[in-house]
Amino acid sequence: MRQQLRKWNVASLRWLAISLLLTWTSGCSLMFSETLTPEAQSFLQPAKTAPDSVTLEIFQARVPTSDSGLLEQLWQEVDEQRLSVESRRELVRNGFRVGVLGGALPDLLAKHLNLQSEMPSASAERVITGENADPQVVRRVMQLNRHESATVQASDLEEHRHILISDDRGVKGRGYEQVQAVYSLRAEPVPGQRVSLDLTPELYFGELRNRYSGSDQGIFLITPSREREIYDQFRMAVELAPGELLVVSCLPKARGTLGHAFHEVDRGEGAEQKLLLVRLLQVPGSEILADAVVSQQ
After folding, report:
1. Which among 142, 150, 144 has a CA at the least distance from the CA of 284?
2. What average pLDDT does range 172-196 have in this prediction?
């Protein structure tokens, strides 16, 4: 009797284990094969950019001042009349040279920027050498939303620099300690698939100190920062179409000017001129063009 009861218990446990295994397997198949609901799928969607964002490509290139061929070819192709007369006058007498380059890049400039038609092959290892630790050309891509600004570093931190500023009242100079040149960059979409680009030179100087700043929530924040000098009178404002580049550099033999502080450096082996190129890659979709396409269909 006991032996029959033991056999029955073993058989019952075996059938119970098989039933549990079948139930678990069918449940897993349902779990992995069932179509996700729209609510669940929404969590898997890639992050979308703001509808009014602008995509910019920024090149910062160093060119030896002795390489006059590249610089001459570049400025022969650049349209320096795209800025207002007043803006050009203020910029030129303070050492800046600015213009817009449209269409294909000059051959020498494209070669110097090392533009490639294909992406280089990826490598798991990267060897740091003197050449790529301090590259001649730095490229970055950024997206800017409306009313958003970005900072573009134009020079390394220097212990001391004396700068001359020229205006209608004459020339005045000032010395700065622990000074660094930067640009404040803004981009606003405008009708016609164009973007209004603003580039304003600024100087950060002095020691880092904790400073109070307000926030949108009405909370005061303490952030370490330097003093800042903003040169609104030298703001570079221009409209760009996709593919056009804003080109900024300095005039030759303009030592002591603000443009020289931003765009020329002496590295011991000879002076180098620094080029800043901002290219418009992408603008928000045009409602006018979209309506025209719909009307033609």
Report:
1. 144
2. 93
- pLDDT tens, position by position, 100-135: 998 777 787 788 777 543 333 333 443 434 444 467
What residue segments make up the domains of the chain, in order of their start?
Answer: 54-112+135-288
For the chain, the average pLDDT equals 77
Q: What is the structure's pLDDT at 256?
A: 93
**What is the structure's pLDDT at 70?**
83
Report residue 82 as tokens.
């795209």
Q: What is the pTM of this model?
A: 0.71
State the pLDDT at residue 30.
Answer: 42
* Residue 97 φ/ψ, nearest 5 degrees: -135, 125
